[in-house]
Amino acid sequence: MTIMSYLGAIGAAQREAMEADERVVIIGEDVEANVYGTTGGAGKSRAEEGDFLQMFGRNRIRNTPISEEVIVGAAAGAAMTGLRPIVDLSYSSFLYMAMDQFVNQVAKNRYMFGGQASLPVVFRSAMFYGLNTGAHHSDRPYPMFMNVPGLKIVVPSTPYDAKGLLRAAVDSDDPVLIFEACTLWGTKGEVPEEEYSIPFGVANILRPGTDVTIVAISSAVPEAVAAAEELALSGISAEVIDPRTLVPLDKETIISSVQRTGRLVVADPAHRTCSAAAEISAIVAEEAFESLRAPIIRVTTPDTQIPFSPALEKQLYPSRTTIADAVRTVVGERVMTQA
Amino acid sequence: MNLSPEILLEMQRRMLRIRRFDERASKMVKRGHIPGTVHTSIGQEAQVVGACMALGDRDYMTGNHRSHGHPIGKGSPLGPLMAELVGKATGVCGGKGGSLHLADFKVGSLGESGIVGSSIPIATGAALSSKVLGNGKVSLAFFGDGAANQGCLYEAMNLAGVWDLPVIFLCENNQYALSTPAHTVTSGVIADRAAGFGMPGVRVEDGQDVLAVYEAVNSAVERARRGDGPSLVEVVTYRFNEHSEGLRLGTDYRDADERSSWLERDPIVLFRRRLVADGIALDDELDELEASVLTEVDDAVAFTDASPYPHPSVAFADLYTDPIGALA
């Protein structure tokens, strides 16, 4: 084990995947200069040692023009014909430029051609929310892509998960979209130095509990853990679950937790309508209704666009306070009867 | 062009296959035997076959919505293609693609796209594979004059240009985007746009001449194979039928004289005359060839009729390489 940042863990996974398989290539804007710090040695900007361009050369490190549509489509075509590309799309808000390729080609080609194609390709992008970058850089668009059958959707929340899930994505024969939260880039945690992968569809129970289940996504995960720690001081035992992958979704872990706790709060930084939280709430309502002792509460970003000013933005996302308040609401009755 | 008689006759055979296949498909649409509609390549066979036969068997191509001819031109057998149009289990895509989404990976056909222009980046990516893996394969993207005004074409041409990718952008200019005359929505000449990307742009004025198309595409393929990068080839042609079979429009958007002058330039008739004039084949031999293609189409329909429909569970297969919980 070593201590690594979330961003460093992504870089490590990319390096290991590149070394393990010559068919893996990295395609994207500014990948050559290591602008975001995942295609070089330690930290940002090109390093003397351990630089990806130096290690793998221009044939496999493919700096692109700003042309998201062809970047995504060409990566799909390359994946259909023998490569295993990792595409760096920098900001998640830029994915919309390539929406036709994602929806009509990447997601559908295997299916509509009757299984003749497989598309082993990974699309990485960072959600720059919470950093005062305004409405064009702050999107958390994973729920839109959950609505497109054929894609796998990954939302790592820790350095350990970031490395292991990215390697599983590269090794997968299906297209995978990884949404990285920028606010987590600097998070440090224990990461094995050796190669490993985390299977998709297996949730992580970060903290066991008995009174309420909190399912948290992406940057809401550390907030939910902080909320659970605070709630423990008032005698409320919250179980915190990170699904880690939204497609496939580990329904069993979530449902069996709710069957034990009887209460559910879902914390999701996406917009409220048709969010991942909405889907998870619907699944629990359909499959574990009889276990629920209180209405489900979603803690999400409200259905408004993201404003620039620091005075306006931060209040919008799920925080330890809003998550803890939601938990107090769903356990309220029991706490009152005990009091 | 020094092509062997075998190759020349194969060109005629494949053009005939496309013609007879699409004629039969048109009838089957009108009788309700094929659900939905189809877009035929009738009239454009020279342009399709000239381009496909300039490619090698292992080379890649992508198609568009008017694309039955592309896999046929590349050598795909007719039975599974016809079965796909009807939605049978033995269809080339197992009944999940249909007319708009034929693909036959066995002949390098990476699939058609019902979205205009959308498959151009896919062909570009296949060329990237060839380049990175160094396997010498060339890739060709078929698209129409309509797709020539989609942005993704220019993103793809730029990327292929800077990376010297072995790809040919082949514009099948049949002069109409459904009802819209290309010249009313297209600024300048499509082939000339290549200059902006520093790649050769060739316009084949007579797209009814299979050898003219072959020659132009062959040069582009040789250039790509040498590692010298992409080309744009625009072929001027004409579709003899309506945009799609069964489509009835209230307006005559095509001038009657224009249409009849193109109908006189039937690529199959023209090439047959040439084969006879050049002493490549006798009329009798060409009659036999026509009869044998008709038999192939009959056999394809018989194969289709004898094939079962897919089991309903097939609707849930092939989405992912490993089944995931969402579909359980």
From TrEMBL, chain A:
Top-rank taxon, per record: Bacteria
Coiled-coil segments on the chain, per record: none
Protein name (Swiss-Prot/TrEMBL): Pyruvate dehydrogenase E1 component beta subunit
Transketolase-like pyrimidine-binding domain location: 4-187
Record keywords, A-Z: Oxidoreductase, Pyruvate, Thiamine pyrophosphate
Annotated source species: Nocardioides psychrotolerans
PANTHER family xrefs: PYRUVATE DEHYDROGENASE E1 COMPONENT BETA SUBUNIT (PTHR43257), PYRUVATE DEHYDROGENASE E1 COMPONENT SUBUNIT BETA (PTHR43257:SF2)
InterPro entries reported in the protein's UniProt record: THDP-binding (IPR029061), Transketo_C/PFOR_II (IPR009014), Transketolase-like_Pyr-bd (IPR005475), Transketolase_C (IPR033248)
Cited Pfam families: Transket_pyr (PF02779), Transketolase_C (PF02780)
Gene3D superfamilies from the UniProt entry: 3.40.50.920, 3.40.50.970
Alphabetized GO MF terms: magnesium ion binding; oxidoreductase activity
Automatic annotation (TrEMBL), chain B:
Keywords: Oxidoreductase, Pyruvate, Thiamine pyrophosphate
Name of the protein this chain belongs to: Pyruvate dehydrogenase E1 component alpha subunit
Dehydrogenase E1 component domain span: 13-312
SUPFAM superfamilies: Thiamin diphosphate-binding fold (THDP-binding)
Example GO molecular function: magnesium ion binding
Pfam families, per database record: E1_dh
One example of a Gene Ontology biological process annotation: pyruvate decarboxylation to acetyl-CoA
Cofactor entry: thiamine diphosphate
